[in-house]
Design a protein that fits this description.
By secondary structure, this protein is mainly alpha-helical. The chain contains nine helices and two strands, in the order H-H-E-H-H-H-H-E-H-H-H. Helix content is 73%, strand content 2%. Helix 5 runs parallel beside helix 7, helix 6 crosses helix 9 and helix 7 packs across helix 9. The radius of gyration is 16 Å and the shape is globular.
C-alpha cells in the first residue's frame, strides 16, 4: 500500500490557508512577503513566509498543483526529510539570491511572494535524480517538457526568473549533495 505524502499535503494546506487569510488583508500580506530592502535583523522570517503568500488565486492554484505533483513523488521515493530539505533550502536560497540580484540591478520589484522558488528546487532535485538514475520515476523527455513550459512562464511579467533559476540550481545541488553523502556513508 502506497503511503500518503502527508508532509506535502500539510505544506499545501498551510500555504492555502495562509494565502486565503491574507488575500484581503494587505498589511499582513506585506508583512509576510520578502522585501527587496530586506533586513536580516528585522524580518528574517520572511525568508520563508514569502512562500506562503501568493499574488492571487491563479498563482496559488498553479503553484499548489505543481507542489503537490512534484512533492508527492519526491516524498514517496526519497522520503520526507529529503523532500523537506530540498523545499525549504530552495525557498531560502531563492529568496536570498533574488533579493541580492534585484538590489544589484535596482529592480522595480519591491516584494517577492509565492512558492515557486521551492517548487523549482523540487524540479532541480528531480532533474538530478532522473539524469543520474537515482530512483525517481519519470523520463528526461517528460522533465524537459515540464521545464520548458515552466521556463516560459518564468519570462512573464511579474514572475521572478531569478527565484526560479536559483531554486532549480539549489534543488539540483542539494540533491547531488544528499546522494554523495549517501554514497560516502555506504
Amino acid at each position: 500500500m502506497q503511503q500518503k505524502p502527508w508532509l506535502t499535503i500539510i505544506i499545501v494546506l498551510i500555504t492555502c490557508i495562509t494565502s486565503a487569510f491574507v488575500e484581503y488583508n494587505l498589511p499582513i500580506k506585506i508583512m509576510l512577503a520578502l522585501k527587496i530592502e530586506f533586513s536580516l535583523l528585522e524580518n528574517f522570517w520572511t525568508l520563508f513566509t514569502y512562500a506562503l503568500v501568493h499574488g492571487g488565486a491563479v498563482h496559488l492554484i498553479l503553484n499548489m498543483m505543481a507542489l503537490y505533483s512534484l512533492g508527492q513523488g519526491i516524498e514517496f521515493f526519497k522520503g520526507r526529510i529529503y523532500f523537506l530539505g530540498i523545499y525549504l533550502v530552495s525557498v531560502l536560497s531563492a529568496g536570498l539570491i533574488t533579493v541580492w540580484v534585484y538590489s544589484l540591478i535596482d529592480s522595480p520589484a519591491r516584494i517577492l511572494v509565492g512558492a515557486s522558488g521551492g517548487i523549482f528546487g523540487l524540479f532541480g532535485a528531480i532533474a538530478y535524480l532522473i539524469l543520474t538514475k537515482k530512483g525517481v520515476p519519470g523520463s528526461a523527455s517528460d522533465l524537459r517538457k515540464n521545464l520548458f513550459l515552466n521556463l516560459i512562464i518564468s519570462f512573464l511579467p511579474g514572475i521572478s526568473l531569478t527565484a526560479h533559476v536559483a531554486g532549480f540550481a539549489t534543488g539540483f545541488l542539494i540533491s547531488f549533495l544528499f546522494e554523495k553523502q549517501k554514497t560516502l556513508v555506504n
